[in-house]
């Protein structure tokens, strides 16, 4: 088990500084197609197509601040690796990304556009992560988890700071959940407010809801899912579970049919391409799982990623 601490205020401040230097504020737009007082925070407009570039920038910047010559090593199904790769390009850092052999072809192709060391290893994320940790043990550097890392969590939490400025009557934020880095960052960033944070995961990989229900991490069976970016068991000792429990984050699950329908709805009705992991919030709203706020306060759904393989998107749109 790796010892990981909750992010400190200094890490939140540093994350905000580097994100503001390198990323534009993503828009919030009304979504009457989903109902009254519902808006979308469009993180798919990020240069890598995913919110995870925020955590990548924060972690790489923090690594360089502590040791300018240090290498960052990450394991990723795609979007976390893209975030680290973008940060490497902007911050002139050395980055290695270990990607499972079965990762999305679209995400691997995007990674190949950056000047990073790209290693394909293992059939799934757990094997890629084990290889990344072994690489750090042998060669040195800093392993950066996609979610169980204080700088990554602080980086993802910069979305909360943007939302508080963009939506004065914010009542609820609907957040995709896999390992919990984003939902942790959002709940920490919204501490001291009365804004509800609702996490949404695929019922095919209910790792966070199982952990919240049990009061700690429990192993689950992971089934195939369109939301591949959210799939997998949680790392033992992951701080995201304690943060979710402490901040009373509600976790919802949606079906594969709901995710598929949400991806098609986003394309046809919203004019937006969403990968499965990026569509679970839309799926939850369309399934009637997110109760409206009182007094007309706004519900904001985070659209977190667009990096879906063309063949899969074509299948979803024509099924």
Summarize the structure in short.
This protein is of the alpha/beta class.
Question: Which features characterize this protein?
Answer:
43% helix, 319 residues, Rossmann fold, six-stranded mixed sheet, alpha/beta
Write the layout of secondary structure elements.
Elements: H1 9-22, E1 28-30, E2 38-42, H2 53-66, E3 71-75, H3 79-91, E4 94-99, H4 105-111, E5 117-120, H5 125-139, E6 142-143, H6 150-156, H7 158-166, E7 170-176, H8 181-189, E8 196-202, H9 207-214, H10 239-246, E9 250-254, H11 256-270, H12 276-286, E10 298-303, H13 310-317
Parallel strand pairs: 2-10, 3-4, 3-6, 4-5, 7-8, 7-10, 8-9
Antiparallel strand pairs: 1-2
**Rg value:** 18 Å
Order of helices and strands: HEEHEHEHEHEHHEHEHHEHHEH
Subunit organisation of the chains: single chain
- Care to count the β-strands? 10
Q: What is the CATH topology classification name of the largest domain?
A: Rossmann fold
Helix/sheet category: alpha/beta
Shape: globular
- The amount of helix comes to 40-55%
Our count of helices gives 13
* Strand line-up across the major sheet: 1-2-10-7-8-9
Q: What's the architecture of the largest domain in CATH terms?
A: 3-Layer(aba) Sandwich
CATH class of the largest domain: Alpha Beta
Distance separating the two termini: 43 Å
Calculate the mean pLDDT score and round it.
95
Strand content: 15-25%
Name the poorly predicted regions: none
User: Which sheet architecture does the biggest sheet show?
Assistant: 6 strands, mixed
Could you say how many structural domains there are in total?
A: 2
